[in-house]
Amino acid sequence: MRFILLGAPGSGKGTQAKSLGEHYNLERISLGDILRQEVKNESELGRKVKTYMEKGLLVPDEIISLVVAKHIHSDDFILDGYPRNLAQAKELDVILGKKKISLDFAVYLEVNEETMLKRLSGRRVCPHCDANYHIENMPPQKEGVCDLCGCKLLLRRDDKPEVIRKRWEVFVSENMPLRGYYKEKQKLIVIDANGEASEVLQNITDKLNGKQ
Ligand code: AMP
């Protein structure tokens, strides 16, 4: 099975992709995680994408398509955070077409602006081991400290209020055409993602199991 997770920043794509990857034993390819790692490593790619990410802008499509093509290793996977616009969706079809495969589903996690704001402004990450927390929904045992490695937790640079606003604007402008693209192909599955992560996961697996 191959599918993509679509949705606004803070819709829970990363969290759900991890759980779904374990549930269905699928490789998870997270564009945001891959790019953040490149920035952390100060690689050539990392240097190219850093400014876009810090401003909440999309990294140019030609860079992204090379990264995606390089990371799709098997025929079964979950793509998290890609495609983000119509051009990327069409490019993905080309990449998969070369492998003589196509997507099964596009799972769209729908959240309102209030949920998005709450989730992103409360998110804290560990700069050392990349563990994610939320100050209310998933707090660490000791405030401000990573449970796994003891490092001081930080607010992600692109979770600052002015950058969150920009990311939301980018999402709103790109989202409708992307959604329309997969709806037309009858691959779109829309999930209300405002609730608890476990509830959302159950809804996704119920829908996917019903479609297989
Ligand atoms: P995420 O962790 O998915 O919210 O992504 C963090 C940032 O990485 C985004 O705000 C973009 O700057 C960049 N990014 C991630 N995925 C893509 C993509 N498919 N196209 C362009 N930029 C992306």
Structural overview:
By secondary structure, the protein is an alpha/beta fold. It is built from eight helices and seven strands, in the order βαβαααβαβαββαβα. The protein has helices at 13-24, 31-41, 44-55, 61-71, 86-98, 113-122, 161-184, 197-211, and strands at residues 2-7, 27-30, 77-80, 105-110, 123-125, 132-134, 188-192. Strands 2-3-1-4-7 form a five-stranded parallel sheet, with helices on both faces. Strands 5-6 form a two-stranded antiparallel ribbon. A hairpin with a 6-residue loop joins strand 5 (123-125) and strand 6 (132-134). Helix 1 (13-24) packs across helix 8 (197-211) and helix 4 (61-71) packs parallel to helix 5. The mean pLDDT is 94. Bound molecules: adenosine monophosphate. Adenosine monophosphate binds next to helix 2 and helix 3.
Question: How far is it from the N-terminal to the C-terminal residue, by CA?
Answer: 9 Å
Strand order of the largest sheet: 2-3-1-4-7
Helical fraction equals 40-55%
Q: How many strands in all?
A: 7
Would you list the SSEs in sequence order as H and E?
A: EHEHHHEHEHEEHEH
By secondary-structure content and strand pairing, the structural class works out as: alpha/beta
Arithmetic mean pLDDT: 94
The gyration radius over C-alpha positions equals 17 Å
Discrete helix count = 8
Task: Estimate the global geometry from the Cα principal axes.
Answer: globular
Low-confidence stretches: none
